[in-house]
Amino acid sequence: MPFTTLGLMPELIRALADRKYVEPTPVQSKVIPEILAGHDILAGSQTGTGKTAGFTLPLLQRLSANTQPSRAPRALVLVPPRELAAQVADSVKAYGKYLRLRTAVIFGGVSINPQIDTLRRGIDILVATPGRLLDHAEQRTVDLSRIEILVLDEADRMLDMGFIRDIRRVLKLLPSRRQNLMFSATYSNDIRELAQSLLRNPVEIEVARRNTAVESVEQHIYRVRKDDKRALLTHLIHDGDWSQVLVFTRTKHGANRLTKQLMQDGIEAAAIHGNKSQNARTQALADFKAYKIRVLVATEVASRGLDIKELPFVVNFELPNVSEDYVHRIGRTGRAGATGVAVSLVSDDEQGLLKDIEKVLRKPVPVAPTPKFAPAPPPVPEHNERHRDPRAVTRNPPQRARGQQHAHQRGGHANAARPGGQSQEAAPQPSGSQRRKRRRRQGAGHSHSQHRS
User: Fold this and answer.
1) Is 343:220 a contact under the CB 8 Å cutoff?
2) Left, alpha or beta for 282 (phi > 0: left; psi -120 to 50: alpha)?
3) pTM > 0.85: yes or no
4) CA terminus-to-terminus distance, the chain
């Protein structure tokens, strides 16, 4: 069934053709007619199923039907992470390229002044993260009184990130009469409660079973020692000639450390996480998409915010603490009908996390034979003379003997003589039994210590 059967206007069909999209995905074929009919929507769909186009296309069409000039936005799309906000805005602009609608995106981590200038010039569609949107509302640089359509994208993710209070504050700023579209990968009790307070007689659409992984993703795990994960990952990338790999770690520090190690192994890599500036995150993502780097190491901030066309490989370097996040991580690949591979490196201390993930998936993740690989070299200890054990001076006779042998071969002493004719080279230390004999002799009446000649 082509897009032309869904009632979309020619300008949108033309924009879809530019992107070589001919047939809608299951979620698009279900939500587009309902949104065009003006219904509220509660849609459950896994990431990578085309839901962004599913709400963007009918949103553009409904707004284009009424082109009365207005400086205030008429549609608001709320999304959780900054990366997703930017990508949704790009999609809106791409699909609406043949329409006279203005789109803007606002998020934190960058200067607010250029955003204020854009809002003052007037826009039709605003894509925003909740925190920065409230910043503008407090400064009265955005007018939300004319919103006709509200979209909550990745609603479950926003709740996980603690945005529920911000969302409720935003809702109070909107007109009561509007169309509401809510998209969530999972249906938790909190999502149900939010939907009941937000939506009016919604049409419920669920394309994928709750918390199921995208079927086009090949999943398997490798059992490996924690200390060998880095070496195995390097082997997989080199041996398989992987060109685009998204690797997930649990912590920002771990992402930075792994990125540095991969670069030491000759693999171009960059890290993306919350402590990185927005410019650095944007540049890393752009380099990754342009194949300038092979590996993008990310924390959970990127698990739903990245839209990389036909991403072939996702690696869980560490399993997530929240089992549902596994679904969102691997959903970065196998998108829009493409196939992908999701590999998890599982150590003994992660068996509990793996069991939780398999409960969510309702099936075990296949275990693949771990390939043979060269273990990573042990870390080189840092030599710090101030912290050396002082007893090491008398516990390293082989090194001292080698120094004496080299001096003898050169026909002289290894070090310059001290004042008074004594050499800096230490004399051989007596053994323990020799010291005990000497003390007994001293105790028996020797009046002076014996000296070496």
Assistant:
1) yes
2) alpha
3) no
4) 104
